[in-house]
Amino acid sequence: MTVMSNGAAANSGSGHNWLLLLLKARTLVALLLVFAFFSVMAPNFLSAANAILISKHVAINAFLAIGMTFVIITGGIDLSVGSVVGLTSMIAGYLVLNGIDLGVGYSLQFNTLEIVAIVCLAGALVGCINGILITRLNVAPFIATLGMLYVARGAALLFSDGQTFPNLNGNPEYGSDSFYLIGTGSFLGLPVMVWMLVAVSLAAGYIASRTPLGRQIYATGGNERGAALSGVRVNRVKMFVYMFSGLMAALVGLIIASQLKAAHPATGEFFELNAIAAAVLGGTSMSGGRGRIAGTIVGAFVIGILSDGLVMMGVSSFWQMVIKGLVIIAAVVIDQAQSRLQARVALAQEVALNR
């Protein structure tokens, strides 16, 4: 039996608190480390042109990671987002090139805003189907979204029999010639997609921290049964997060089709892995109930800088996959360590209060 003095206990508790603080700040520490490393090792890493390029890559991953964060906080997972990116990209390409053929010698043509609205609705609809499978049919999130991964990818291939929709320049007669601005336009020196990310991040952060819906999302992931008994409509909360995740994937599909001025059914392959990595690296717990939008954005920057920095250093794409996998594993291990340490600190505080 070990006897510890109050002073020793206080010192131990203080040490745990400092370690816990360091673990909570791990994403910011990781960001500073990778930035400093590539600033020295990668040529032209600090150039303005590279900063703009990295911001575009980060934005694409961050949109998906924000949607993934909400899903993971509820204790779920969405493996279909990459395929939804490909599907919505093909829908956008089809609408820009062809409109909707009514079959009687006429077709419906759409302007850019209408195309954006339709594509976003399609992404949210796929998320709604995921939500129905999970909440109404009690299919496990992993299985439901894995199945949707194949369904959405197959639907993307069927849109053009596996071919690309090229030359998405739009038609000024229909008002779709501004489609390119989504992915390549700029405002005040920053890409439009970055401004879109700022708006989405602020809105998502507000929902998560300032609204009853945000509290219900955290409650659902922390203790689903307890949340239901407290009056939280758990199924509606889950429907929202999966629809929101689908909406974020649709935005990415629009951005990529606009950037490339082409839509390809293979767009978005493995994007879900980067989104999960950014969310987990940003402090979102895979067991649910914990996560922050700000942390996810920082995590997306870590993944983006890591990816672009490795490319600039000429590292093989095979090694890039290995490194990203190790980052995900390390993030989960550290998250588990943080959870155990938080429980230990809480127990120590409770013991101290009861003395």
UniProtKB/TrEMBL annotation:
The chain crosses the membrane at residues 28-46, 58-77, 83-100, 112-133, 139-159, 179-208, 239-257, 293-311. Keywords: Cell inner membrane, Cell membrane, Membrane, Transmembrane, Transmembrane helix, Transport. It is a multi-pass membrane protein. It comes from the Bacteria. InterPro entries: ABC_transp_permease. The keyword Membrane applies. The keyword Membrane applies. It is found in: Cell membrane. PANTHER family: ABC TRANSPORTER PERMEASE PROTEIN YPHD-RELATED (PTHR32196:SF21), ABC TRANSPORTER PERMEASE PROTEIN YPHD-RELATED-RELATED (PTHR32196). This is ABC transporter permease. It comes from Hoeflea alexandrii.
